[in-house]
Design brief:
Length: 221
């Protein structure tokens, strides 16, 4: 018998797409099925210097909305070169640390690993208009462990903004397009169409049923 590598499920998408809700559903379902599940958050568990980066973003890159009621973040949509270059360096460190974190989790004999956000959420912030940027994206993808199933929860930016008004609405529309364009680099990315919580949950679980069945079957060396 050979050791089974724990399947890795990742959830990505714009802010307010419902990732946390769906992750909770998948997590609870797998626990009910008797599996040992590791749950991780990309920003907390894999990102390099997350506290420092969050402090910089919130202290220097926030702005108020026109109504002065909501503080809108402005960290992901800043394209100045002096911020872009350090950001790209951090993404490289993120990918390397992510590789180590996934290896550590798999060494702990979990049945499944679930990640809230993944390297794809970083890639969606990179403009892939020239060969250098495209090469860099492929490098990050090569460094990060390939998920068993990578879910991209699509959502209407307008509705997502109403649920979670964190970034400017025009940025949210562009951010969604960037996520969908990742299929050029990651054709296996599973895009879940917008719908009710129940519809999205069923679409996700239908893709997971085969994996959970396979996980119950013994692996023969």
């Amino acid at each position: 018998m050979s050791a089974r590598i724990a399947p890795l499920f990742t959830f990505s998408g714009i802010d307010g797409a419902g990732k946390t809700t769906q992750i909770n559903c998948v997590h609870a379902h797998l626990l009910d099925e008797g599996f040992r599940v590791a749950r991780a958050t990309f920003w907390d568990d894999a990102a390099f210097l997350p506290g420092f980066r969050a402090g910089i973003s919130l202290s220097f890159l926030a702005k108020r909305s026109a109504t002065n009621e909501v503080v809108l973040r402005n960290d992901k949509n800043v394209r100045a070169w002096y911020l872009t270059l350090p950001r790209y360096g951090l993404y490289l460190l993120d990918a390397l640390r992510l590789r180590r974190v996934v290896a550590q989790l798999r060494a702990q004999d979990y049945s499944f690993i679930i990640f809230d956000r993944y390297i794809y959420d970083q890639l969606a912030q990179i403009r892939s208009r020239n060969w250098l940027a495209r090469t860099y994206i492929r490098l990050l993808l090569a460094l990060a462990p390939k998920p068993t199933a990578a879910f991209l929860l699509d959502a209407s930016p307008d509705e997502a903004f109403l649920r979670k008004p964190e970034y400017p609405l025009d940025f949210m529309h562009g951010y969604r397009r960037s996520f969908l364009s990742l299929r050029t680099f990651v054709p296996e990315l599973v895009v879940i169409s917008p719908g009710s919580v129940e519809e999205v949950r069923e679409a996700i679980q239908s893709r997971l049923r085969r994996t959970t069945r396979d996980s119950r079957e013994p692996t023969v060396a």
